[in-house]
Amino acid sequence: MCFGTSSGQLNQLAHYGPIGAISLIIWITISGFHCLTQWFPPDSKDILSVINFLIFWIWPVVIFYNYFRAVFVGPGFVPKGWKPAKIEHEKYLQYCDVCEGFKAPRAHHCKKCRRCVMKLDHHCPWINTCTGHFNHANFCWFMFYAILGCTHALLMLCPCIYRALFAQYYIYARIKNVPIIYFTFVGLISCILSIGLALGVIFAVGFLLIVQLRSIMRNQTGIESWILRKARDRNHRRAKAFIYPYDLGFKENFRQVFNWRESYNVIGDGLIWPVRDGSDEYALTCEQLEQKKDKRQRTVRYEVVQSYKGSYITLRYGFCTCICIPWSDETRMPIEKGDYVLVTRWERYWLYGECVTANETKKNDDIINSHHRLRRRPRGWFPRCCIYEAFRIEDLWSGKINPDSDVVRAQLANFSPEDYDNNDEEYVEQNEENQSDDTASASSASSSSSKTLNQRKNHKEKLI
């Protein structure tokens, strides 16, 4: 659970992520310092040893400084109930039912933090909050210094352990001017483990830092990169290709995050953003609204024929279902026989959708045109074998099934149902990137469906 950001409360550290990250830093630091004092201890007569000692302790200071700023400063939240200054601009923005306000440009809702986050990149469990507008720079600096600190620790650990393992050789060979290093069994195991942890940090955090710098170079968050990819897939439908509005050039894109001209202070308030010449500040949000409309058209309603309790152990539904689980931390949705599900994402053995209970009454025309629902329906993943499929939707998209066939016509009412909830949380966007190939192919294939399906979808758009 995310206890909230920008609050400065210490209970935000009461989570496996911060506890693990802090423990890892302390472990590697103590092990490295133990080896440093034996192999290259500070000596007033040796200036290099003093410099090495001081640099070694600079790393944990700058690492913890940027880490705690990333945690306690937080990404920045859109105020609850926020509205644009001009009421006519509301039609260009998405409305968040949870925060009861509009989502500012570049803001997305985080299910873990339960708030709309300014310039949301991703929710990071290691800082127990999101990476966003106000803490993006500190998060990157934290990763950068963590890599340098672990590299320095390795330079202390590896030679020290090597000489400890071959201490007898140095003693019998009577090699002078070489410190003889001894380890207890626990100390030796601890230092060897520290080497593995430091290497893991260098490679894992290094990869994440490269991904972050690549995003900063383009002035895109992880979610915006996914939206832009879908926008490019939709370019064949419009006369003018979509242009990403926030790409201000390589140098300016980096300054938007690190801002070396103004003492590294954050630029802007997170609600209004500079755009490139000829672009509109609501271009990306309008594109996302269009993509939401496409997603609504891809929705298919299925009847549940087998109950599922939401468990993570699904061997009773088949061996392949048990091992081919979705690569996502989204919830598993319990469903009961007789319910209906509105499916928006398809995996080979799993589906993601929204549950419509059997006793839920169908909306009338007035409720169809409403933008709000009194009670949000549960969403999540469930085994594909739990629903009845007259045909696999992938076969329809790939052209294996004729859209005008009798079996498709019989299921026509289940395509793009009117009662699908369009107010989808942005947390789904963070996880949709892992299923990009399936969704992208679905988007392109759905545009080439038969005239009958298109007429059905156009009718639904008019209702909404």
From TrEMBL:
One of its GO terms (molecular function) is protein-cysteine S-palmitoyltransferase activity. The keyword GTP-binding does not apply. Its EC number is 2.3.1.225. Keywords: Acyltransferase, Membrane, Transferase, Transmembrane, Transmembrane helix. It catalyses: L-cysteinyl-[protein] + hexadecanoyl-CoA = S-hexadecanoyl-L-cysteinyl-[protein] + CoA. Residues 90-226 form the Palmitoyltransferase DHHC domain. The chain crosses the membrane at residues 16-36, 48-68, 142-166, 178-211. It is found in: Membrane. Residues 418-436 have a biased composition (Acidic residues). Residues 454-464 have a biased composition (Basic residues). It comes from the Eukaryota. It is a multi-pass membrane protein. Residues 440-450 have a biased composition (Low complexity). InterPro entries: Palmitoyltrfase_DHHC, PFA4/ZDH16/20/ERF2-like. The DHHC domain is required for palmitoyltransferase activity. This is Palmitoyltransferase.
